[in-house]
Amino acid sequence: MFESAELGHKIDKATHEREVPKLREALLDAQFDFVAARKFQVIILVGGVDGAGRSETVSLLNEWMDPRHIEVHGMGDPSDEERERPPMWRFWRALPPDGRIGVFMGSWYTWPILDYVYDNIDQAAFHDKIERITHFEKMLVDEGALVVKFWFHLSRDGQRKRLKALEKDPRSCWRVTPRDWSRLAMYEKFHEADEQALRMTSTADAPWYIVEGADPRYRELTVGKILLEAMRRRLKQKAKPAKASSAPPLLPPIDNLHLLKSLDLSQSLSKKQYERALEEQQARLALLTRDPLFSEISVVVVFEGNDAAGKGGSIRRITGALDARNYQVIPIAAPSEEERAHPYLWRFWRHLPRRGRLTLFDRSWYGRILVERVEGFCPEVDWMRAYGEINDFEDQLARHDTVVVKFWLAISKDEQMRRFKEREQTGFKRYKITDEDWRNREKWEQYESAVCDMVERTSTDYAPWTLIESNDKRFARIKVLTTLSDRIEACLDARRKKMKKQNGDKSKSRAGRK
Amino acid sequence: MFESAELGHKIDKATHEREVPKLREALLDAQFDFVAARKFQVIILVGGVDGAGRSETVSLLNEWMDPRHIEVHGMGDPSDEERERPPMWRFWRALPPDGRIGVFMGSWYTWPILDYVYDNIDQAAFHDKIERITHFEKMLVDEGALVVKFWFHLSRDGQRKRLKALEKDPRSCWRVTPRDWSRLAMYEKFHEADEQALRMTSTADAPWYIVEGADPRYRELTVGKILLEAMRRRLKQKAKPAKASSAPPLLPPIDNLHLLKSLDLSQSLSKKQYERALEEQQARLALLTRDPLFSEISVVVVFEGNDAAGKGGSIRRITGALDARNYQVIPIAAPSEEERAHPYLWRFWRHLPRRGRLTLFDRSWYGRILVERVEGFCPEVDWMRAYGEINDFEDQLARHDTVVVKFWLAISKDEQMRRFKEREQTGFKRYKITDEDWRNREKWEQYESAVCDMVERTSTDYAPWTLIESNDKRFARIKVLTTLSDRIEACLDARRKKMKKQNGDKSKSRAGRK
């Protein structure tokens, strides 16, 4: 993998001096077009061994191009706000919008590699983490980003020489730390980890460029030319090419029997039953969310459903049981300008709750495979990949001790008509029926298919869908409340059990030592 | 101040049951109009003594209105990201956009009151903090926000009774903490602090409503009615009324002599002088920003100037000396949708640097009193108040150990013409001269007046303007670099001196004790 980067690449001074001015002009011009177009973002990863020229390269990019449109993220230890979210949250919040270049020193590769080298995780876990990275980068590229990954390499000898040279020069000696030397001592282990990571993530979408770091002139010209060609090529693609999907199309079952039809929508509760159950379940939820262990987990609740199915009413029955300081309700409508300039999941990542808190999404990322699919707002290739992207997203949440609860509130077509008519007759503006509601209704069957595909493809053991029979509002609200409490309770119980077991193990091992 | 809130206000059950349904309907309808209009935000402060119904009120608002458009901020201890910015940063980042209601439990009043009660600050410092709050709230209101402030009061006896009742009930006993009892013991001191804060901040723009907290029915109806009337009245005002300014207008000096004319634009450096000075000053800046003490301060640099005055070139000479991980350059163009939905300073607050970092603004909040004034994008009353608002903003930065450095890059009208023509002849797209550049040039004298007013009104000892004679680019860049380093150096020296003195005092007091 690194063979070619140990050949001793060199560029002579004359060539360098001749080439650099042209390259800088060309880079500046490409950047100008890129900023003016605001069609995509550039994400540059700067990785490699200590002393191989990473920070010099970042400074160079800022010098050669217009630093006003470049953001550099030197990712150190996460802040407390970052630690309370899944590990990728800090990278999501730092993603540049269209028309800006984001440079990451210390990236999503750093921590998996360190964990592996220092034996915090085994090879299988390491590969698993690396595999997730390929998913993430593929999503970025599919969303239009240009991802350019540079790896600066030095042989073990080369690295030792370089660190010594840096140490000798009073202008750079502060850059060499004891950590650099201790890492050099582990060169082999790093080498092995790096090679695995680079090999597994050198994809067609986002290949690595391994650059020999010994000769600054060679390094500079190489980096500059790769970046220039990458930007030029991407700029030439007039828009994101609307690829035709070559996947087998999703068709409704040929016997026309599907999940939604299997629901018994006639289930209902009497007023008396409802009031008793409501009080009971709200008290239960209130207690669960005040459990001391609750401060160690987060909860994300997704509400999707037919128009007029009663999402708002169900949400209010949940929030009625919560401390208002601990939750946020996020209504999802059309994305803002800033949100449109980022990958579509960005607007949801930014609202993820801290530990001990809940976020309730009134409509959600599932818009991608519901309304955007049915209305044709996004091409089939794009919504087809969303199933996997969403599963990845929710998997990250679940792994970070977030309970993900997803509700589909289903009503029959007749019941919807009844509610629309009822609403038309009330005087309250907030219940106004819009033309859009009527239009959506015309596509009832298409939405049904989309919902069935959604449930089939995104109902996972870590984030299952719950279908809520909602023709009777009372029945629906109680089922929502009960399901939510069940899920939180199960999570807290599992934690309690785990803690007990750990404590048991500890006292056992203490006993054994005596 | 609290007399009327100790009268024992009560509402009987029958009245309450009759009034509540009407009130809820009306509130929901007002909220619907408010969300649809997206013309302003509602900011609700919920303050008062422990046990007087603050959290009940917040829950009530969420129950009576649509919680999807309400954000509740229970402000606890600041996170590390928050501690590294001025104290108001966490409130700025939590400000709701137009069309949303933000409820603050624990607000910008909480910490000044606690500091005063627990003798961390004296009365003068307390008043100073409170005075700043009135400025902040006035700015919010002037920017269009509806600010509604509720204070829930109980007499000392009433509070004791209430805490005991809460403690007795198993459903609420968890809410009473030892802290509540220890605060009750300090009732008088809190009473005095609260009264001062409320009196000083009960302004015509944002008055306090003191609500007796003993009777829940009285409390609920009072809060609901005040909020309803406030929203209704604000909604009726079709748009923000374009008030005519009654202030004496800003006129240019009658003898036509002004600051910019007093600049000696002929100052220049030879190429050799420049190169030596550049190397020297960049090395100096590099060392200063790597000083261990630098990690305790932040730096904000503002670049304003005539078109083609060389802002970009000066910025690149600064960034060339910095570690790319420690700075951000923020180019300011037209605000995004999300930024327009907040007070105009919001978009600058969000980019404030953490400790040990620099933010360079290429154009800035001064747009308000330059382009927006000259082009008539905002009415005179609005830009007239911006001078004070900006001084307040920069004062907060300076108090939080942020070095604020502001440059005006001045060139002569002839020199600008020369540069425009030169640019028209180069092939580089990035130097394209737009129609707007020519239009701005036509208003040269108006911009000159605006700049002179700006310098006169916003050059403070904590954030002075430096005018940069920029007809010669070399001279300009060196003056920029030198000024920046001078300011950082002065700040670091002052810190070092203070530390030494403190250490000296410590060892003296140790010696004294022997």
Characterise this structure.
The structure is a homodimer of 514-residue chains. With 514 residues, the first copy, chain A, is an alpha/beta fold. Chain A folds into two domains: 3-236, P-loop containing nucleotide triphosphate hydrolases (Rossmann fold), CATH 3.40.50.300; 259-501, Rossmann fold, CATH 3.40.50. Chain A has 20 helices and ten strands. The first copy, chain A, has helices at residues 13-37, 54-64, 80-83, 89-94, 110-117, 123-142, 156-168, 178-185, 187-201, 216-236, 271-289, 311-319, 337-340, 346-349, 371-374, 380-399, 413-425, 435-442, 444-458, 473-513, and strands spanning 42-48, 70-74, 101-105, 146-153, 208-212, 298-305, 327-331, 358-362, 402-410, 465-469. A five-stranded parallel beta sheet of chain A has the order 2-3-1-4-5, with helices on both faces. In chain A, strands 7-8-6-9-10 form a five-stranded parallel beta sheet, with helices on both faces. In chain A, helix 12 crosses helix 20 (473-513). The longest helix of chain A is centred in the C-terminal third of the chain and has 41 residues, at 473-513. In chain A, 33% of the residues are buried. The interface between A and B is large, with 52 and 52 residues.
